[in-house]
Each structure stands twice: as C-alpha cells, then as structure tokens.
Amino acid sequence: KSKEAEIKRINKELANIRSKFKGDKALDGYSKKKYVCKLLFIFLLGHDIDFGHMEAVNLLSSNKYTEKQIGYLFISVLVNSNSELIRLINNAIKNDLASRNPTFMCLALHCIANVGSREMGEAFAADIPRILVAGDSMDSVKQSAALCLLRLYKASPDLVPMGEWTARVVHLLNDQHMGVVTAAVSLITCLCKKNPDDFKTCISLAVSRLSRIVSSASTDLQDYTYYFVPAPWLSVKLLRLLQSYPPPEDAAVKGRLVECLETVLNKAQEPPKSKKVQHSNAKNAILFETISLIIHYDSEPNLLVRACNQLGQFLQHRETNLRYLALESMCTLASSEFSHEAVKTHIDTVINALKTERDVSVRQRAADLLYAMCDRSNAKQIVSEMLRYLETADYAIREEIVLKVAILAEKYAVDYSWYVDTILNLIRIAGDYVSEEVWYRVLQIVTNRDDVQGYAAKTVFEALQAPACHENMVKVGGYILGEFGNLIAGDPRSSPPVQFSLLHSKFHLCSVATRALLLSTYIKFINLFPETKATIQGVLRAGSQLRNADVELQQRAVEYLTLSSVASTDVLATVLEEMPPFPERESSILAKLKRKKGPGAASALDDGRRDPSSNDINGGVEPTPSTVSTPSPSADLLGLRAAPPPAAPPASAGAGNLLVDVFDGPAAQPSLGPTPEEAFLSELEPPAPESPMALLADPVPAAEPGADWHPGHPAPLPLPPRFVCKNNGVLFENQLLQIGVKSEFRQNLGRMYLFYGNKTSVQFQNFSPTVVHPGDLQTHILSGLGQPPTKRVAAQVDGGAQVQQVLNIECLRDFLTPPLLSVRFRYGGAPQALTLKLPVTINKFFQPTEMAAQDFFQRWKQLSLPQQEAQKIFKANHPMDAEVTKAKLLGFGSALLDNVDPNPENFVGAGIIQTKALQVGCLLRLEPNAQAQMYRLTLRTSKEPVSRHLCELLAQQF
Amino acid sequence: MIQAILVFNNHGKPRLVRFYQRFPEEIQQQIVRETFHLVLKRDDNICNFLEGGSLIGGSDYKLIYRHYATLYFVFCVDSSESELGILDLIQVFVETLDKCFENVCELDLIFHMDKVHYILQEVVMGGMVLETNMNEIVAQIEAQNRLEKSEGQGLG
C-alpha cells in the first residue's frame, strides 16, 4: 500500500468520523466509542487529530465504565489545552473522585497523572493526599493516588501542600499490600529529596521491610515473587530510597542493613534457581542497586572491596547487559579512596573490553571507566590504549575520547615532552575531532613551561614534514614556530628559511582562520629572523594577500606589511615579543567535557560556538573601511599603550581591536590578550575589565558585562524583525545564555515553547523567567506561564543544560506592543537580568482568508475611509525576490490571492485577525518596483491602529 | 521516571506510543522515527541499553529496549530507574499481553489498541511503575472485562 493511498484512506475515514460527530443524529455510546478509538489509531499512525475531544469528554462523563474508560484514554493521549474543555474534564474528574467507586476513582487518578499538567495540579493537588491516607480507600486507589501525587509533585512541587499526611505516608511502608508499598516508596523517594527531615523515619521502616524481603524464602511473597526472586522491584526501590540518606545513625538499624547488603552479595554467589534470563536479571537488578548503595555510603571498606570483586566477575560475564552495567558501576567505584586500588586491578579486562566489545554502548562505558581509574601510575598505559582505540573508534564518540585523552595527558604528565607528543598524536589520528579547546590548551602549556618549548618546536617541525598533515597541526605548528622557532633555528635542517617555506607550503590549502594565524606567524618571523624579512614582505605584498577578498586576511596583510616597513627594530621587538605566560586556571578542556556531558540539546549550542563564523561575531572582528585605512597604525598603538582609555569611544575601540589583533599581544600589555584570534583570546585570557578589548571580545566570565547585561531593569531588547514572519528560531543569544523559541498559533490562541540553554559550564542560580505585561497590555493579551507536566523551569540550570518553558497566550483584543519576557538569574554570584520582547505580534493571530477577485475589490472599497488605510513607500533592504516575498507574506499570516491584482508583479493578501473581543478583517497589497528598488505597501483594515501597526511590522520585512 | 513507551514493528510502524512528557505531535513522531533508527541498527545479542537519542532526554536518559519477534518495545527512562528493573518490566508487560490475548501477536496490538492501552495503564501510570505483579494486573483486566460484559448485556 503506497503512502498516498494510505493518506487518502485516512482522510476519507477522518471525514467520515467528522460527519458522524457533526450529524444531527445523536450517536449511541457504542458508535462514539468506536469512532474515538479509530481516531486514536489514526493518531498513532502519525496523523494530527484536531477534533473528537468533545465526544471524548462526553464519554468520560458517562456512567458506563467502558465509555468512561475510552474517554479518559483519548484525553490522556491527546491532551488539548482548550480551557473550556479542561474545565469540563476537571469537572468530570471531580465527580469521579467523589464517587466512592474505586474503579472510577482509579480512572480519574490515572488521567490526572497521565496529563500531569499544572492546571490539573491546581485543581486536584490538595485533594489527593486526603484520598491517599484515608482509612477506607481501597488498595488500588491508594496505589494510584500515591503515584498521581508523585507525578503532580514532580510537575509542580509548589502545588503539593506538605502537612500531617506526610507522616501517614511514611507508614504506608508497613502496608500489607506490596503494590501500595512500592508506590509509596516511589513517592517518598521523591518527596524526601527536598524535605529529608520530614521523612527521616522512613529509614528504619525501609530497612526492616528490605530485611524481611531479602531474608524471606522466595515463596513467602507469592505473587510478588518474580522468577524465584522475591519482590525485586520493591527491593530496588527501597535501596534507591536509602540512597537519599547517609548511613543510618542507629547502630541496630545499621547492623540490620549491613546484614541485608551482605546477604545480597552472598546470594550472588549461589547457583541460580532458574536458567531463565529473567531470573538473573531480577537478581542482578537488586545486586547492582545494593552496590550503588554501598558506593553511596562509601564507608564500609569491606563491602566496597566485595562490591568491586563482584563487578570484576561481571566484567567477564557472557551477558552484555551485565558487562555494561558493571563498567558503569565501577566508574563510580573508582572515585572512592577505599576501592580505587581494587578497581585498578581490572585494567587489563577493561582495556580488552575497549578493544573487543562489539557494542558501542559498552565500549563507551569502558572508555569512561579507563578515564575514571587513571592515575599517575597507569596514565601512560591508559593514554596509549585510548589513542590506539581512537584510530578505530566510532565517530560518535571520538570527540569525547579526544577530550579525555587531552585531559589525562595534561593531568598526569610527568615530563611535558610526553604531553606534547600525545597531543600531536591526537591531532594526527583524529584531527577533525580535536576541538579548539584542545589545541589552545597545548599552546598555553607550551607557553608557560620553558623546559618544553624547544622540544615542542622540534616536534611540530617534524610533524609538519608529513606530506599531508591536518590543519590543526598547521595551526599548532604555526603558532609554536612563531613563538619558539628560534630555539631550533641553529640546526641547518630547520633554519629560518626552511621553517618559513615549510609553513608557507601549507598556507594555500588552509582555511581563512589558519591563514590569518600564519600571517601572524610570519610577522613574528620578521622579528625572530631578520633574514627572512625580504621574503616575507614579498609574500605579504603579493596581490593575493593585499587584495584578498577576505577582509580579515587583507587587513592583516596590509597592516603587517606596513608595520614591518615603518616600525624600527626596537618597536618591532617590543610589539612582537614572546607571549607572556598564561594565568593558571581550570582547563578549558575540562569545562568542555562537562558541557558535553550535559543534555543532548546543549551540544547544538556547542556547535554554534565552534562555528568559526560565530566566533568572528563574538570576537567583534568588524573591520570597517575607516579601520582598514588607518594611516599610521603604530602611532595609534603607542597612544593606546600609553593610556588605555577605560571606556574608549567606539572609533578608537575599533582601532584598538584592530591593533591588538595586528600586534599579536605585546608583552608590555598582557591585559590586552596575547593571541591573534579573539575567540582564542576569550577562551584563554579574559582581559581585565578596563581593557578596551572587553567591548569587543566580550569575555565569558562576567568581567565586563556587555551592554545588554547590566543587572537591574534593563530596557527590553528589540524583537528581531524576522520573528514577525517566523514562529521558531533563536530569540536571544549571548555568551551565557541561548533562548530558543517555538510557537504555534491558532485562532486567538497561541502556545509558545521557550528553551533556555546554559552555554557555560557553571550552574545558573535563582533562574527565573517571567512574563511582564507593560501598561494595560494584560487587558489586550493574556499570556501566562504554563508549566509542562514534568519539567517546571527549575530555579537552577546546570551548565550545558537546557530547560523548557511553555507559555499559553490568548489574544483578547488588538494590541501594539508585545509582552515582555524578563529573565533573571545569578551566574557565578553576579546577578544577571535581561528583558526581551516576546515574538508575539498581532499578525500571529491572522487567519488567512481566500476570496475571489470581485469580493476582494468590493471589500477593498468598503474600507475606503482614510483612517482605515495605512500606506508606506520604502526602499528594499533585501534583494527583491518574488519567491522570498511570497514566503514572507505567508509567514506573516495572510492568504495570498492570485489573479486579483491586474499587475502580476504585485501581491495581494487577505486575512482576519482573531481576538477574543473582535475580529479585524485585513486586506493588503504590496507593489514592488524593481527598477527603483522600492516597495509600496498598502493595508486596509476595519481598525485604524491595526492598519498602521501591521503596515509598520510588514514594512520591516523587505 | 519513564518518559515514553514506544512499540513499533521491524519496519518502524508504530504500534503503541505513549508519552508521559508533553511533546508537540510532530516531535513525538520524530522521536519514534529516531528511536527506530537507533534501535534497528543494533545486533540482536548486544546490550539492551543505549544512550538516548538527541530528541528525548540527554545524558541522563537511556533507551532500554527488547526485541520480540516482529516488535520492538522501547522504554525511554531517566537515571532514577534501574536498567534491569525496566528490562524486567518490559517482560512483565509482554507476558501480561500474552496472557490477556492468548499468544499475543502484532495484529492484537492493532485490533485491540484500546485493550493494550488499558493493560499498559495497569503497569505504568503517568510514567511511574504502578504494578509489577502479573497476577494482579491480569486480575484487574479480567475485572474490566466482566464490567464490560455486564454493560454490554445491559444494552442488550
């Protein structure tokens, strides 16, 4: 069956169901059930379902169980945010909760838990604890109520009131019914994270419960025995709960618990009671959780070593799952001082796993474990194994391995020549995966340690001899030879001209960024080796440099050439002196690895940062004609060095940037930042706040918050015009934070998803985004922050993490200014605040309207009062492309009407703006004039301010 | 917590999809597709865990899956769940389906989609494990069937 046929069939069925629902004849319960079920199936196949909710609500309000059941199912799968509907659903739920019919109560609780929205929480969070601890509630109701409460608590903890019920929840651990106990343990595990003291009594109850299960014969628990293992899930949950607390203080409780843990470890050695994999799975689930608890306590050396031995056995197990989990657990075990040595004894097995496992998930765990168990004694072995693995590693994990090798090599380097060799090997083996942080770091270290500089120069020189070497090698080589090439110049095989011609032989194959770096190397060569001056000046003077199409290269060539001919040797020597040492700080690679470990979404941000073009923007390299033609750079330089102005006016700041750039960080001015590339600079060396660079390079740690970032009440940033015609995209981005937006609008309602990404490796604290309605805007547009069911926007946003927020929007009447989003948080102690305009403009509530030419003209004439029309004639800011214009107009929201305007070049559109209070009909006409590169835009609507506002919004787009 | 439960066949056709975290419809479908491609390319006898895809989760999430004949059962869970525990839970779910449908096969999931959902609801509620005792689950389902029958007769 072809795709088209399927779609056709489904559309037919949808039309059929729609007509049945709309028909005059009332449907009986059975047919309603049938059609609602069909809709569910069509949804499963991946088709949008936008109706049927009303019928589902009817069903779930029925007194018949089967109707209620399918009604609830439909609503929980296809949640709809229509407020009217939610009111009806909540009503039905309320009735069912009060019905005292346990089956109905369970259905209602299921629905609340499955939807789990904030609205549900607001309506029911207060009732559920009562149901949970009521003496007369049935077991199944208690069980559902516990999980329902847990779900609401996870979604919106503020809505769940703590109270005297909490004590009674703890006592559910003693309940007869194992299902109730399991649900209660899940609930307590979550609640006790925030209020450990309120639930402290659960420790002893949990221990005694666990002890009864562990020591029972497998038949005692009858139904909860799973493949001969007594209550495995409950045991696992109890062990998890105990991991929320430190070891029990009461000696008797602790003794009993240790006994349990030992019993579990002992049982692992007993012969299996069944050959089935389910038996060993269940048994090992308990075992792994026991080991986690032992590691969590980290206080019983005897148990830790036993745990380690047990995991060691699993490392060789034929079940891949067990090898995977053993590697994972051992990773945490490696950081305990009691077991670190014991973990190390398994090094050969782990290396073997890295080499021979067929499964990438397992190899990844092995690499993690090697990283965790590495110390000075085995670093050389581990690093060389990881390097060897890198040659054949899966592409997906290469970058992480590169970072790990780089960190280990640095951390455990005894002699730095080994470190340099390792990094160069990394570039040779996996050059594409060596990120900037890695090669920046090697330069930092070489610059700071003079015992390794000569070796580094010699090694890179040799590495560059290879006929094909990676561009990153050229970068490192170029930089190091520019600094320390003199240390090997005595050898005739690496004399200055040889060094230069070697580097220059790579020049033409390299990217712009690398060529820019090499130009800086060349100017440094002129200082290091005066004999190369003529050759290098010749290269700089060549048309391919001086008139290079890339402004950055052209600028460097022009200015380096002038510098080399104007400046005296002394000035040259000062300006181009060797780089000063970098201040010691946390490795930027480590920060990067941490960032990588963050949620997957963050990697997109990383990519953005690594993108060279965005670095250019961050770095503020914006060569304007005036800076290119700076007549005497050296004069400016001297002025600048004499007195760096704290807040340089833009022009001289521009020149400052340029000069710093050109002169490659003179030693006399360490605060200006020493490297040719601003991005590099902002990674390595945040300039002191008074440096003019701060204006340009915008360093990450809040040294000098950019203009957008002063705490207090910042003025709202303007809305990027592209959001008028687009609903998705990056709304805001700076060094710390990225805010992405995704929104959808229907009629006068909208829903917006905001994604906040922490681009740093440091946690944001007190993170609070709120929506502000300036003036009386609230009476025009209602927008409230709805929380997605599981993730409230947390007050903390971890480094590299992304959080999501949902905004529900209702347009009450027409409005002119968008609501504001105010975001506040603390970054490294410094309060940050920004205010943005939300991309909610009146045109979002457009409903396109198709009409024939005569209708259009008739309406056009009806709207002929002067105040109903707004017109603008403006110059095109973008190339005039009919297709692009069309797309923009459609994005703007109106329908495009063909064959209306007699001139086919013109665009005509119509639509209705939907607000709750009124509808505003809009007609528009856009007349491009290609010769003049001008547009005329005319809007006619039934409301004067709307005409003008729409006209302004749309005019920015072309 | 369980973020999502996805069941699809060897060709990636979804047979049961349940999300416990809200995603827009098109993202849900992307997640199903992405998960299918992640799982499909794995051999049968390697481990049952893999790090989550790009759409759902991040490093705190794992996909835990089992392959039965023509169907893949995939649970996307966060680190608060035991991997082996979830693996057993999948087994419980499938064994329960098998009991309720007497030798369950892919067609049962298509023709009795509502039933399958009801069975799942007895096992997992709002992303949390509700019941792991197969007899208890089957008893609940049988009670439902009895109610259904009695109502059917009432209409008679």
From TrEMBL, chain A:
Residues 623-642 have a biased composition (Low complexity). A 1,2-diacyl-sn-glycero-3-phospho-(1D-myo-inositol-3,4,5-trisphosphate) binds at K20, Y30, K34, Y35, V36, C37, K38. It is a peripheral membrane protein. Pfam families: Adaptin_N (PF01602), Alpha_adaptin_C (PF02296), Alpha_adaptinC2 (PF02883). SUPFAM superfamilies: ARM repeat, Clathrin adaptor appendage domain, Subdomain of clathrin and coatomer appendage domain. Residues 721-839 form the Clathrin adaptor alpha/beta/gamma-adaptin appendage Ig-like subdomain domain. InterPro entries: Adaptor_Complx_Large_Subunit, AP2_complex_asu, ARM-like, ARM-type_fold, Clathrin/coatomer_adapt-like_N, Clathrin_a-adaptin_app_sub_C, Clathrin_a/b/g-adaptin_app_Ig, Clathrin_app_Ig-like_sf. Component of the adaptor protein complex 2 (AP-2). Adaptor protein complexes function in protein transport via transport vesicles in different membrane traffic pathways. Adaptor protein complexes are vesicle coat components and appear to be involved in cargo selection and vesicle formation. AP-2 is involved in clathrin-dependent endocytosis in which cargo proteins are incorporated into vesicles surrounded by clathrin (clathrin-coated vesicles, CCVs) which are destined for fusion with the early endosome. This is AP-2 complex subunit alpha. The gene is AP2A1.
TrEMBL record, chain B:
Part of the AP-3 complex, an adaptor-related complex which is not clathrin-associated. The complex is associated with the Golgi region as well as more peripheral structures. It facilitates the budding of vesicles from the Golgi membrane and may be directly involved in trafficking to lysosomes. In concert with the BLOC-1 complex, AP-3 is required to target cargos into vesicles assembled at cell bodies for delivery into neurites and nerve terminals. It is found in: Cytoplasmic vesicle membrane; Golgi apparatus. It is a peripheral membrane protein. GO terms for biological process: Golgi to vacuole transport; intracellular protein transport. The gene is ARPIN. PROSITE patterns: CLAT_ADAPTOR_S. Adaptor protein complex 3 (AP-3) is a heterotetramer composed of two large adaptins (delta-type subunit AP3D1 and beta-type subunit AP3B1 or AP3B2), a medium adaptin (mu-type subunit AP3M1 or AP3M2) and a small adaptin (sigma-type subunit APS1 or AP3S2). Interacts with AGAP1. AP-3 associates with the BLOC-1 complex. This is AP complex subunit sigma. PANTHER family: ADAPTOR COMPLEXES SMALL SUBUNIT FAMILY. The keyword Kinase does not apply. Pfam families: Clat_adaptor_s. Belongs to the adaptor complexes small subunit family. One of its GO terms (cellular component) is AP-3 adaptor complex. Its main location: membrane. Residues 1-147 form the AP complex mu/sigma subunit domain. Keywords: Cytoplasmic vesicle, Golgi apparatus, Membrane, Protein transport, Transport.
